[in-house]
Amino acid sequence: MKKPLLLAVLAGATLSASAQQTLTPELLWKLGRLGEYQVSPDRKTVAFTVTRYDLGANRGNTDIYTVPAAGGAVKQLTSTPFSENTLNWRPDGKLTFLADEGQGTQLYAMNADGAGKQKISEFADGSLSNLKYAGSGKFILYTQDVKVRKSLQDLYPDLPKADAKLYDDLFYRHWTQWEDDKASHVFFQPVGEDGRPTGYGKDVQAGEAFDAPVRPLAGSEQLAFSPDGYWLAYTSRKLSGRAEAVSTNSDVYLYSVRDGKTQNLSEGLGGYDIEPVFSPDGSKVAWLSMATPGFESDRNGIIVHDLKTGKHEDVTKGSELSAGNVRWSADGKTLYFVAVVEGTEQLFSMPSKGGKIKQLTQGLQNYNSFELAGTDVAICNRTTMQSPAEVVRVNLKNGQETALTQLNQDVMGPVKVGKVENRRVTTTDGKQMQVYVIYPPDFDPAKKYPALLYCQGGPQSPITQAFSYRWNFALMAAQGYIVVAPNRRGLPGFGREWNDAISGDWGGQPIRDYLSAIDKVSEEPYVDKDRRGCVGASYGGFSVYYLAGHHQGRFKTFIAHAGLYDLASWYPTTEEMFFANYEFKGAPWDKTQPKSYQEFSPANFVGQWDTPILVIHGGKDFRVPEGQGMEAFGAAQLRGIPSRFLYFPNEGHWIQKPQNSVLWNRVFFDWLGRTLKPDGQAAK
């Protein structure tokens, strides 16, 4: 009798899941997340990875799939408890990847159909990553951690259980990582006729204490082989301590496999120089370059360096576009790239010698990255605000798109989503600002809805058609909220003047832009002006704290995640001092103090706070240290303002662990429910 009852319960659960109509935080973690992808040498097959999560186990696992580049059935090649990553196609058509199956990270190879898998390396140090094959197949490169300085235990060997950190200079921590005794170095190693690494890996940065790629967020995109494999290019910021903390000056270095010599290709260029890519004939290197030292959100130009003459130029000079993901055409005559334009990411092309830039795609979607798959064909990672990443093929002649995967049709198919409206709002200084408005499913204009003003971070990170797993607009709308998401001053995709206007003016025109957006949308009869909230993270969290003292009764609730609260106390505790110096135009103790510390620091206006606020922060957030959230929550509590503090001791600037993410969303929506629903009451 028990077995039929159990089957009935399971059948009911399955039916309920398949009929689910509302997007939930839990459902987001059922989605397969597209990772890296590589096109085979014959351009016929796309290999890609998908990560799926087990919410109960609080972890994910990554497997490898393939799909024909021309379209066809998706095939899963691996299904193991060990995540596979770092895909490479060898010239012989075999697919390689890295995995740790209990012997440290090792290199594996298999046939294109998944058969014949074998381990082909015996790396003693299992920390390697970012592996790439030379086009010739003769060499591989990879990165490994190398001991470059003394540890605390080296200095005090009689105190092996001492638990402390000791520093004499800045940049002792970055994002979520503390500086230790190691640095990431680039290695190259020969490959035998059988495709296996032979001999030993040579450290191309031996004796240096600098990271390559630039830690902690960069990866294999900052490493490249020449087509013949005898040159490799890599990105590094060869500075340390205070000099590194105040500078964005990373450079592109060229290493000769033949003689072991290194040269700095970008010497004299003072900003970020990253992501080198060799031309098909190996005579040139293109990379992304920011011209302004210390400005991390400057326009990315495309530098083309001629290895024969030693000269280079920005072939995009004069363009308003900020480029990314640069690729050469097979004949070397054309450069392709992606760029943000008016709230989307699109594909562009231009002559590699410089000239007219052509926009190749249109539409309300993001092409987040791409790889070329033959003449006039690109394989892309595509998203919208309401649909997670899929692999698509784009015809570069006419922009026509063909879907190659439907990774989440079983999960997202039954889910109702509301419409996304692309509006223009007139700002206080007479400019036209793009504003996305996201509506609840089954929206009825005859009803009244609570509205959320979303404040974007960065402060120069655009609101595009990205599908976010952290601040998901479709998820917010599914809970019954109208979401107002303005591309306010400082956000890319609307020209350099718009992008650069925020630096030194955090509490000025960008804040007025926010208010213009929410005020205009609130004129609609379906927006309940008595149930409006304001939410955001990082600069968006700063905006929430600032607006809490300046909103003039507009909002009934606030939620700030990882926000800057007191600019003067934040300045010496953050790590990227170049960011602080550029955005605030100096230190709080400068003889002539920059206006930001008096006019824009939210802490100076906490006496005007009068509205319930939820504060969220991560303990490993070294970008905006945890004290900022604690100060804000403490001030709210001491002033008797209904407030709550959600703290994640082992998360950084972003909440990334599955169950922590679900908890974040539950507390987020619970707070909104208490403070914006009719007769709601804030937590105390």
Automatic annotation (TrEMBL):
UniProt entry keywords in alphabetical sequence: Hydrolase, Protease, Serine protease, Signal
GO molecular function: serine-type endopeptidase activity
InterPro entries per record: 6-blade_b-propeller_TolB-like, AB_hydrolase_fold, Peptidase_S9_cat, WD40, WD40/YVTN_repeat-like_dom_sf
GO biological process, one term: proteolysis
Pfam families cross-referenced by the UniProt entry: PD40, Peptidase_S9
Superkingdom of the organism of origin: Bacteria
Residues of the signal peptide: 1-19
Matching Gene3D superfamilies: alpha/beta hydrolase, TolB, C-terminal domain, YVTN repeat-like/Quinoprotein amine dehydrogenase
Residue ranges of every copy of the Peptidase S9 prolyl oligopeptidase catalytic domain listed in the record: 468-677
Record PANTHER family: DIPEPTIDYL-PEPTIDASE 5, SERINE PEPTIDASE S9 FAMILY MEMBER
Family as reported in the entry's similarity comment: Belongs to the peptidase S9C family.
Name of this chain's protein: S9 family peptidase
Organism: Hymenobacter jeollabukensis
Organism phylogeny: Bacteria, Pseudomonadati, Bacteroidota, Cytophagia, Cytophagales
